[in-house]
Specification:
Layout lengths: L1 E5 L2 H18 L4 E4 L6 H12 L9 E4 L1 E3 L10 H8 L11 E2 L8 H14 L5 E4 L21 E4 L2 H7 L12 E4 L2 H5 L3 E6 L5 H9 L17 E6 L7
Parallel strand pairs: 1-10, 2-3, 2-6, 3-5, 6-9, 9-10
Antiparallel strand pairs: 4-8, 7-8
The structure holds 2-amino-2-deoxy-6-O-phosphono-alpha-D-glucopyranose.
The site of 2-amino-2-deoxy-6-O-phosphono-alpha-D-glucopyranose has 14 residues, from helix 5.
Length: 241
């Protein structure tokens, strides 16, 4: 594993965008695994800027998002679908048919999950997966005590995650309690992974992830076993290492 400690959020975002853009330049039909949350917003901004000045072309890229709230329509302001459109897809030349985000309104959720993994497999797997991390060590929406063997599945959100994510909703009661998320197995099958973290709220999770025991209690700790993972973290998130 590689650990890159940077001074601040801006530097983290720039480094991550450069890694993503390099991947696309080297392999224009790359399969990108994308994340949501506040952490990657800056990286998406950088990528949009790079696209606008002609440094990167997304016309052959395929994307797969990590997760989506279950029960939220894709047009809901808080859906991850809407987040991706606003932060990235509306501003670059990725083709609509190449965008994949779990369907949070799927009636047959089990089928949706199996189909999602099958679609990833069909395109040859994810070349580079971006991850944020929850304060409890979750990745995607794989909460503590998740099975490391699971593919994409319906998850019940942890109290802590619901509380953390309530800042995006009008009230905590509006935060969905379940989500469709790529599983740990799906994530671990990505060829390359970059995990971004900033701020002191992530320091404990980062310490446990990088230096702690590999345990389902800290889902991100499994990344210690991945052969090509890079952590890009700011000084505050690295504070306990
Ligand atoms: C959500 C997402 C995760 C994300 C995490 C951290 O729960 N499902 O993919 O990494 O939040 O969010 P933030 O970046 O806002 O701290």
């Amino acid at each position: 594993m590689r650990i890159i400690v940077v001074d601040n959020y801006e530097e983290m975002s720039k480094k991550a965008a450069i890694m993503m853009a390099s991947q696309v330049v080297l392999k224009p039909n790359s399969v990108l695994g994308l994340a949501t949350g506040s952490t990657p917003v800056g990286m998406y901004k950088e990528l949009v800027n790079m696209y606008k000045v002609g440094e990167v072309d997304f016309s052959d890229v395929k994307t797969f998002n990590l997760d989506e709230y279950y029960g939220l329509d894709k047009n809901n302001q808080q859906s991850y679908h809407n987040y991706m459109m606003e932060n990235l897809f509306d501003h670059i030349n990725v083709k609509e048919e190449n965008i994949n985000i779990p369907n949070g309104m799927a009636e047959n959720v089990e089928k949706e999950c199996l189909d999602y993994d099958r679609r990833i497999e069909e395109v040859g797997g994810i070349d580079i997966q971006v991850l944020g991390i929850g304060a409890n060590g979750h990745i995607g929406f794989n909460e503590p005590n998740v099975s490391f063997e699971a593919g994409t599945h319906l998850v019940k959100l942890d109290e802590k995650t619901i509380k953390d994510n309530s800042r995006f909703f009008d009230s905590i009661g509006e935060v969905p309690t379940t989500a469709v998320s790529m599983g740990i197995k799906t994530i671990m099958m990505s060829k390359k992974i970059i995990l971004l973290a900033n701020g002191k709220g992530k320091a404990e999770a980062i310490k446990k992830t990088i230096e702690g025991k590999i345990t389902p209690e800290v889902p991100a700790s499994i990344l210690q076993l991945h052969k090509d993972v890079t952590f890009i973290i700011d000084k505050e998130a690295a504070n306990e290492l």
